[in-house]
Amino acid sequence: MRPQRMHCATCAAIGLAMLGAATTGFAQVTIDDPWVRGTVTGMRSTGAFMRITSASQTRLVGASSAASRIVEIHQMTTVDNVMRMRAVDAVPVAPGRPLELRPGGYHMMLVDLTGPLEKGATIPITLTFEGKDGKREQVAVQAQVRPVTAEAKKSGREGAHESHRAMGHPR
Amino acid sequence: MRGAQFALSALAMAGTGSMLVACGEAQKPAFRSIDVTGANFGQGFALTDFNGQPRTLADYKGKVVAVFFGFTQCPDACPTAMLKLAEVSKALGADAGHLQVVMITLDPERDTPELLKNYVPAFDPSFTGLYGTPAQIAETAKSYKAYYNRVKGAGAQSYTIDHSTFTYLYDPQGRLRLMARHEIDTNDLTADVKALMRG
Fold first, then answer.
1. Do residues B72 and B116 make contact, with C-beta atoms less than 8 angstroms apart?
2. Sign of CA pseudo-dihedral B117, B123, B129, B135
3. Position with higher pLDDT, A143 vs B8
4. Domain encompassing residue B16
5. Domain layout of chain A by residue ranges
6. CB B155 to CB A80 under 8 A?
7. Which residue of A has its CA nearest to B86?
8. Which of A81, A164, B1, B27 is spaced 20 to 30 A from B135 at the CA atom?
9. Which of A37, A39, A45, A158 to mutate against chain B (most B CBs within 10 Å)?
10. How many structural domains comprise chain B?
11. Would you say residue B91 has pLDDT above 60?
């Protein structure tokens, strides 16, 4: 997996400028392959997906983005062929067990978008985590916008390639 | 609504049973989807396509028709289903013209004809999207035993829609034959569509 890997160093660099405080926890959380489903004219919300790894027990307790008025954390379940989505307050992340935000499980819902999300663009999302000690830390990522028709289940090389291209990520 | 869910569960079980039976009879095609041939629900629709054209199932006679209930602001289940149908269409090659995919919106208040026109053909230019009044949509879903329920989100205005995720497949004579589960893979769905095309 080599998509836009937001190492602690990268996060810290962005985070320091954007957030100022709360750098102590930055070594804890890594976000891989953040992407959002692009929109077509008229769509006012869309899903965001990524993989979250933490070195210590923590909880994802919220997120925000300049691209939408609201960011909700949703859990999707399919029981008896009925798909259900529910907003949840928090999602635990255990060390060594990455939290996948992907179809069939959790995702972020960007609600009330400020504008259309066009393929190839990137949007900022800031995630808030709360450790066992109650301390909150924020991690900023740049999520790539994939086509509205993007394959939801696949990630990895294909996604990495697209990410690389779309991001123009310095490396 | 609960009644509809029970109906679906019963249906799923009945489908499994008939599939097992079908395996024992070499002549009959062993469908990967649930065989609902002879069902008294899902007999068709009378809605409007995103070009403003009134549409019924009969308009697509001669083609295998795949009907999916969804909505555009659905983050994963709907695009996954639509993408799979687009892959089926590609896999059909020269026979793609004998398949008509129809998405019926469960969100007629937000899914305007313009939005459907932007969204549905993005998956495949041949796909169409249908809308109606909220009452027409409710009536259509009911006639398909399709469950849906609007659920409030965290924000004041935000809502999402729980819904059943079957794709309904008709043979070229316009008879409802199969219900494909959301989990079906592209190869299996393509095989079922081809089997229906062969008649």
1. yes
2. negative
3. A143
4. 2-198
5. 8-147
6. no
7. A149
8. A81
9. A45
10. 1
11. yes
A8-147 CATH pick, 3.40.50.10540, 3.65.10.10, 2.60.40.1890, 3.40.50.300: 2.60.40.1890
Contacts of B164 in chain A (CB under 8 A): 81-83
Cβ within 8 Å, pair A81-B118: no
In this prediction, residue A10 carries a pLDDT of 46
Calculate how close chain B gets to A40, using CA atoms only, in Å: 6
One-letter amino acid identity for A49?
F
**What amino acid is encoded at A110 in this protein?**
L
Whether the per-residue pLDDT at B193 is higher than 60: the answer is yes
Query: Which chain B residues in 43-62 lie under 8 Å from chain A, judged by CB atoms?
Result: none
* pLDDT tens figures, A81-118: 899 989 999 999 999 899 999 877 899 999 999 999 99
Pairwise CA distance, residues B191 & B85, whole Å: 12
* Residue B157 contacts A where some CB pair is shorter than 8 Å: yes
